[in-house]
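Practice problem: predict the structure.
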Amino acid sequence: MIPVNKNIKVLTMKSPLTLVKSILTVVGVASLSAVSAAPASAFSFGNIVSDNTVGDAYVNDFSFNVADGGSDNVIFKIANNNTSVAGIFIGSVYFDTGSNSNLLSAFGINSSNTGTVNFEDNGTANMAQSANLSMPWSTDFAATKQGAASNGVQTGEVLGLSFAGNYNNVVSALNAGTLRLGLHVQGINGGSDTFVSSIDNTQNTPEPLTMLAAGAAVGFGAMFKKQRSEAQKSE
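Answer:
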């Protein structure tokens, strides 16, 4: 009879169900990250040189992002970050596409606003102080708050506007100044002022969901490394 060594050690997988769940979670996070990793670019505004300087000191408190909405759709998110003037708000937004008549179409208003913002289409309304711009201005799209000031873009709020258009072409046009966005800001110590998007100031901005997914993936990677190290020590 062949003797049997009772001390033979059989390797087993520790917590197989836990490992499977963890793998599935990482796969889900990776998939979520891929879906949410839409390109986005941030832009700022500049002052218009004129006799009206009431809002010049606050121009950097307003900004906008352009995001790729997929299927030739772009989304503008226009934000009011001012905290120094009580009651200051964005009352109107204007777009001048210059000679790029096919750049934007299918104007959509109130696309996932933040706050009590409520705007309406204002056709091709004239933008205040546009005559003072060095390059002639012609409004192709405009949106204005509905009624009361509370419907404007107050501090901490965001207005969402969507268009049919190619994301890369839109960003290039903004950087070149052939697509311009204007703001009429009201409630500035009893006055108002107008700002226009700055040229060649884009910067990439990661989507928050993508950042969260990336952080989760790193965390799971560290967890797997620790589990494997502990399993090897116990073998």
